[in-house]
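INFO batch 0412 | record 1 of 1 | parsing
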Amino acid sequence: MTYENFISVLTEKLQAKMENDTQIKIHKILKNNHVQLDGLAFHNSNNQASPTIYINDYFIQYEEGDSIEIIVQEIYSLYENNKDTLHFDIEFIKDFNNIKQRIAYKIINYDSNPELLENIPHKKFLDLAIVYYLILGKDIAGNMTTLIQNQHLDFWNVDIHTIHKLSEYNTPLLLPYTIRDMEDVLTELLLEDMKNEEAVPLIKEAQDTSNPMYVLTNDIGINGAACMLYDDILSEAAKKIGSDLIILPSSIHEILLVPRDSEISLKEFVEMVSDINETTVEPEDRLSNQVYLYSLENNSITLASADSMKA
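INFO prediction complete | emitting tokens
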């Protein structure tokens, strides 16, 4: 069965199991780094919608031997078991007063997302883009979110400055940061038989070094690389470590902090980041192949260079 036929059969069989007023729609959704996914959305007559259930991986599951019936039942059960908490009122997000405390930011790569950035408000930061999203509630994956589009600003009648200021205030409150020593993270990963290895893709590479490293993310481990923009986080970390910091972009979900006086060269760090991006990190989760430098004296993040590393 081709992928197109799989989608057609899957949606037909799922629709047959739905209540009369629930309609399934397929959407092609552009994600981070040019990744395009097909998703199922469930709509009903009460003007409610649900988060998208992406079906690309289900086709892989089908190709590996699961029957279409098993996959249909899996998706249906997922929907049924969570539908009361997953649905949200579309009209709710049209009122800015309802959602202004739910606006958060995350960071993605600027040059890898030209098409996506055309349609969403954003601010450039080094080789990255700060983009904004709504945290609408909890879903099976953690937070139920939707990316803020340019059209949202139009019907809210607000500008990007307003969105940015709100996100600066909200994000640290909604998604508090965590900084953990690499050794603690490695211990947990080993205890869990490396089940979460992909969550911190540079860790496995880093364990071969004697240099201290720290993992910075948020409390749910999703879009946690944005924590490096929180007020005073890097300055406090640098003071405790007693050094300016080298920042390694592990993924959009977390970064690694290394003392600037590390014995590893900039070239080695860049090679490490690039290699892990190519071999371990899913395309949608890649943040950058660059290495950054945090200066405590200037309280600033810059792109690391051979000259800045020697300074």
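INFO post-check: The chain has a mean pLDDT of 84.
INFO record closed
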